[in-house]
Amino acid sequence: MDAEGLHLxxxxxxxxxxxxxxxxxxxxxxxxxxxxxxxxxxxxWFWGKILGVKDDYFIAQGAGKNELCNxxxxxxxxxxxxxxxxPPTETAFEKTKIIHGRFQGDPSYEYEHTEIKRVxxxxxxxxxxxxxxxxxxxxxxxxxxxxxxxxAIVPRGAFIRTPLGEVHTNRSFEGLSVTDAGKLTSYLHxxxxxxxxxxxxxxxxxxxxxxxxxxxxxxxxxxxxxxxxFERGSGLVCLRSLIWLGQTFFxxxxxxxxxxxxxxxxxxxxxxxxxx
Length: 276
What we know:
The chain is of the alpha+beta class. 22% of the residues lie in helices and 28% in strands. The chain has seven helices and 14 strands. Helix 3 (90-98) packs across helix 4. The chain starts with 5 loop residues before the first helix and ends with a helix.
């Protein structure tokens, strides 16, 4: 959620159990303004919080002119001092899939995972122990990217792609109607998508390439991975991800107010097939 008006935006997600203490709100609002100036961001937003055993990681993201690409992620343990996270490598992604369990809350902590691998075919095989090491800071960067890929969403029309390929906030966006806000087709993944390219010529006739360049969450697998619910009558709609428990998106129909936040352990819900 946007750093400006953070104290108001958090109230929209309070029904999901997501709250920040008055001290945390005050520290975040002040430090993120400084963060925006120091890193020359056009926009900065509070991404959320990953809960650790010893300490929690507060996450912020910033972007330049193109809000979809070249986003930078930072973390803090005290809501004041921010540290830049390096983009995760392919090796970090592979190791993150192996490492399970809670974050410790110590960026320098090193995970160690030992597994038995079978080498050879038939009866002429041997078993070898393979030990995987992963620094928690690298795991943190990888998990944030994975959550963004699966669960970072925006209302349809909130962002627009220019002829030069840059993605900007759509200043003419006035919010979804109450009817549209209740449809999964009105929400798009905020990532590079192939939604428009995959459509047939007939289907493209009803689409706008400057708006429909993102993937729709209705096509997510498994079906039912999103929970959509109206609150405060029809004055607020909340979408919650069942794949990444703790990811909440909100939108106030007929207004420009929307945002998302993640507060959880950073562990993917592998039991979702049994929940649907």
